[in-house]
Amino acid sequence: MKQLIFLLICLLSLLQYRLWLGDNNLSEYVLLQTQIAGQEQSNGKLVARNQILKEEIIDLKRGTEAIEERARNELGMVKEGETFYRVVGSELRERNPFNR
Question: Where, by residue number, does the polypeptide cross the bilayer?
Answer without folding.
Answer: 4-21
